[in-house]
Each structure stands twice: as C-alpha cells, then as structure tokens.
Amino acid sequence: MKKILVAGAGGFIGGYLTKELISLGHQVTAVDIKPQSDWYQVHSTAANFSRDLSLLGECEKSVDGVDEVYNLAADMGGMGFIENNKAACMLSVLINTHLLMAAKSAKVSKFFFASSACVYNASMQDTTDNPGLKEDDAYPAMPEDGYGWEKLFSERMCRHFSEDYGIETRVARYHNVYGPLGTWEGGREKAPAALSRKVALAKKDGTNSIEIWGDGEQTRSFTYIEDCIKGTLLLMESDIREPLNIGSDQMVSINEMVDILEDIAGVQLTRNNNLAAPKGVRGRNSDNTKVNELLGWAPSISLEFGLNATYEWIQSQIALTVRSKN
C-alpha cells in the first residue's frame, strides 16, 4: 500500500484515477479546487479536500506524508475554452511548480505530471493527414498558445527537478481523453462529448440538424478513459523518465465522428458549418511506437465502443435534466 496524492481528483481523469488507485489498495488523498459538490466523482474511502493548489502552502499540506503525487490539476477544457482563456491556462503553471517544490521538501519518491498533445509543434499539424506525432516532435517548440506552452514548460520543470533534486518524475502526453462522467455542456467539453450532446438533443427535439465547428475535416485521435488510466499507471510504475504519448492512434475527422454518432443514435442530421468557431490545429494523431516499445502499452478500446458508451451516458444526463426541470 502506498500513500498517494491525486491533485485534480475532482476532475474527469482524476476521478477515475482515484477510483482505480483505491481499488488497488492504496491510501489516497484527493484534492481539487472545486467544492466537493462539483467533483465528477467523490470516493468516500479517500481523504477528500477542497484546496487551491496554486498556493504553495496548500501544496505543502497536501503532500505531507505521501509517497507519490499524481498531478492532473489544471484550468482547462476543450478547444472552445483553451482558445479563449489563454491566461487562465497559463496560470496552471503555479500548480505544478508549487507541487514540485512541496514534493521536494517532503521527499516524495515519485511525481506524475499530466501533459497534453497540445505541446507538439503546430507546424507539424497543418494538414488533416497527420501520420502521428512522435515524442521528439515537441521540439523545436511551437506548442498550442497558452495551454500548450504551460504544459511544455511544466514538463521541463519536472525534468529539471528530477535532474537537480532526484525526484523521480513521469510525464504523459494525453491525447483527447473522453468517456462517461465527463464534462458534456457549459463550454469546457471536448469534441466527443459536445457532438454526443448535439446529436442527442437533435434527436430528442426533432430538429435533425447539428452545428459543426469548422468544415468538419479537421482530424484528431481520441483516447477512452479506461485506456488512459491503464497507460498512466504503467508509466508511473516504469523507469521511463522521458515524456510518452498516452493516446489512441485511431485518427478520425469530426465529420466521421458525427457519422459514428448518427449510427449510434439512429438518425441522419443536416450539418451546419460554423467556420468562425475555434478549430485548433488541422490534424493531430498519436504515434504510439515508443510507448508500445517501452511499456508494451497500446489502447484496446475502439472509438466506436467508446463513443457508444459516452453517447448513452450523455443521453441519460439530458433525460435527467429534463425530468428535474419538470
């Protein structure tokens, strides 16, 4: 049994990670800035605290007595959020910096940082036919403005704290993690949840139309939450100190994702393109060669399976919302 801090435990990935660590027999301290009523998941067997981890003192309280830290805390969301909140995204650097400082003082043995595919050089993502981004493609640096720069800087902080102070750091570059129990409305949701909501509402309301941001030909790969958690734990238990992709290499366009969701919902929708909406890079995919070689990890859950589970959950949430209003 280890004593483990999950920072950002009230978030989507953090909630699933906390649950898995508890199931493995570890003693978990779960911390998030949100009040617990707003956490995605609250696990009664964890020690749960609402704290602002951008403050060094709160980080010092949280790491006291723990063996390992998983830092998933960040102010973030989908493309609509990160393109319009660059300063807020950059401020997340305070969380990782102060957690590393506190972990150094507390002699924490291992420190995990959740990075993002947004660190990759944007010039390598300007076509829809992306062959896959290798870990070396983060340099020369030209990441996503705001959010991507914060993630890349925080990766370097982990590297130098490891080199200078001996903290064992691990860094995962997540590629669009999605699944049930995630954000599905309000402006922070990512494409799988946003499109699932739009399709479910179009079916429910009988409008039979959907707004697509951009021309719909932009491509991405999307990682189901269960695959993400498995890859994260494998990386943490390994001796790999360099950043690794934790993502699916099943690349799909937004239009193709809508096709899948239409099949799941049993509808065919008219598509209205909003060319002024945030679109991000033109094409992004994960090259999993290195993570497969070093960890023997590859995602096992197809986009079709994951979208079906996500759509059904979001459809149930819409039904609950309607009933509560009535």
Overall geometry = globular
Strand content: 15-25%
What is the average of the pLDDT values?
96
The helix fraction, in percent, is 40-55%
- Report the count of strand segments: 13
SSE-based structural type: alpha/beta
Spans of at least 5 consecutive residues with low confidence = none
The spatial strand order of the largest sheet comes to 3-2-1-4-5-6-11
Radius of gyration: 19 Å
Order of helices and strands: EHEEHEHHHEHEEHEEEHEEHEHH
CATH class term of the largest domain: Alpha Beta
Q: What name does CATH use for the topology of the largest domain?
A: Rossmann fold
Features:
globular, Rossmann fold, 2 domains, seven-stranded parallel sheet, 326 residues, alpha/beta, single chain, UDP-galactose 4-epimerase, domain 1
Can you summarize this structure?
Helices cover 40% and strands 17% of the residues. The protein is an alpha/beta fold and 326 residues long.
Structure explained in plain terms:
Helix 6 links the parallel strand 5 and strand 6. This protein has 326 residues and is of the alpha/beta class. Helix 5 packs parallel to helix 6, helix 7 packs across helix 9 (254-265) and helix 7 crosses helix 11 (303-325). The protein is globular and about 60 Å long. The chain has eleven helices and 13 strands. The strands form four sheets. It has a seven-stranded parallel sheet with strand order 3-2-1-4-5-6-11, sandwiched between helices. It has a two-stranded parallel ribbon with strand order 7-10. It has helices at residues 12-23, 56-63, 79-82, 86-90, 93-106, 147-165, 191-205, 225-237, 254-265, 289-295, 303-325, and strands at residues 3-7, 27-32, 47-50, 68-71, 110-116, 168-174, 177-178, 209-213, 219-221, 223-224, 244-246, 251-253, 270-274. 40% of the residues lie in helices and 17% in strands. It starts with a strand and ends with a helix. The model has no long low-confidence stretch (mean pLDDT 96).
